[in-house]
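Forwarding these from the shared drive since the link keeps breaking.
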Amino acid sequence: MLEENYQALLKVYDEKSILIHDMKNHLRTISGMIKEVKLEDCEAYIAQIIGEIRKGENTVWTNHKILDLVLNMKFQEARKAQIKVRCKSDDMSDLELSAVEICSLFTNLLDNAIETSVKCSEEMNRRRNVVCRRHGRKLVVSVSNFMEKELDGQAMQSLKTTKKDEKQHGFGLRSVKRTIREREGCMKVKVLGKQFQITLYLNGFFS
């Protein structure tokens, strides 16, 4: 799973690098079109370039390069699944979690949220909120989304995967819990009707 996410991050870097490398040639082509007064062709060409830029467009959410890459990757996946995303974050530039810990925590939390949200039949419920806060040395991460149906007591206790092959899935939450233990933190789950919220508290800063 980590290897797949790492390769996805590398792909983002590669696409941006290629676009930057080719930009000088794009500008020369546009300049030539302007000189030859091919304005309609020029406009179409610029629109095509803008479309390519937007495909790999990344937003600075946290001021932490790895965390922002992970968030942007997962938010793009959510949007492709027609899930609306809202994110609020404090400055995480001095976050002390390793790249593996960041990938483990956030990809698993956000993958689970996508898996749950995409099943909602009502479009208004296909959305999720992500909040990252800093309280002293503590990192507080909250992910909330709507579910297709309410959880019963047993499901609340186990929080098992809903995928058909349970033996091959369900490791995501275990991975999250392991990172929380290693960082001397805790996890809280809150359910109100069909709204599900999971909040993590862990040591993420030195001071």
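-- next protein --
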Amino acid sequence: MLHIQTLRENPDFVIERLKVKNFEARQIVNDVLALDVEIRNLKKSLDDNLMQQNQLSKEIGMLFKTGKTEEANRAKEDIARLKLEEKEKQESLSAKENAIQELLVLMPNLPHASVPAGKSAEDNEIVYSEGDATPMEDALPHWDLVKKLDIIDFDLGTKITGAGFPVYKGKGARLQRALINFFLDSAVKNHYIEIQPPYMVNKDSAYATGQLPDKDGQMYYAGLDDFYLIPTAEVPVTNIYRDVILKESDFPIKNCAYSACFRREAGSYGKDVRGLNRLHQFDKVEIVQIQHPDQSYQALEEMRTYVMSLLQQLELPFRVVKLCGGDMSFTSALTYDMEVFSKAQQRWLEVSSVSNFEAFQANRMKLRFKDENGKTRLAHTLNGSALALPRIMAALIENNQTDSGILIPEILRQYTGFELID
């Protein structure tokens, strides 16, 4: 959530920056600022009211002592009137504070100055690429390969639950577990502390990281308990620090977590969402950092480099793209996507997003720290997929297909216990 002080000091800047995200903010900014003036005026009026009540209370005692009973009673009547006015003003203040909050949560984060303008993924900026992205002749797509090898069963998942809930079997399940362990071990070696989080969160947690109200319809909801199934481990892990005041010496805070992820949206029909390309339930290892504001962009580059190292070890051709304003998430200030090339589908598959949210999430969750001068400030939050498994699995299966079967990358063999899926 944008801080109200940012809107007070730089309303035109906010309006112009949000145009990069194709968000027209002028009306909402004007409404927020008008409510802000009313709120501040009401608070001053309430302070004045309290001062008058305190002054009259002191005078009443003196009036009774000097026998001025009639004047004392009139003062008591004035206090009663002031208390009634105070109640009405408090109710008005509460309503206006709720109204300004409802407007503020509708505004996306400001994009970083380096974010390119654009409306869709076609306008993203390619900043790095590595590996051979040449299509493979006569290659089978992963949905045909896994059926042939009997390692992932989409029909069985549909029978048990529904579309988008595959069943991993045999060496497919082992490969899935191998990837999870490899990603977790790598994160721990890079000084991330492993967390095993809940898979359901309450409304406060979903609100704090920006899933609510922005993605309300995309989350699975357990109505009886008022819980939400997590779309990513980012949500419970970042909420560890909700309503926390850190010390400057606590930075950097680095956590990693494996979780299943649940998302209702499944996109359109066709090959772009076929097989493992888009699921309702999938596995992912997430990395999260809580950082000092002065260090968050250096941390973002380090996280990007780290995710790239995972793809290098998996021997997958990949590229890094900087998302344009129109393709960024509601909460992000700057996002890099990592995409691997599928030689069978002959297309790029997104496997990771690494983002800096600056103080946007921290402001929502009241995540603060005391600096060296004793001043309380908002921390910065960052996260990244390291990595999401479905499209990594798809690319590994498709790119490593041979006449003998699926060749397992060297780095994974210590985890799988086999070199080939045949």
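The longest helix spans residues 26-65. The mean pLDDT is 95.

- D.
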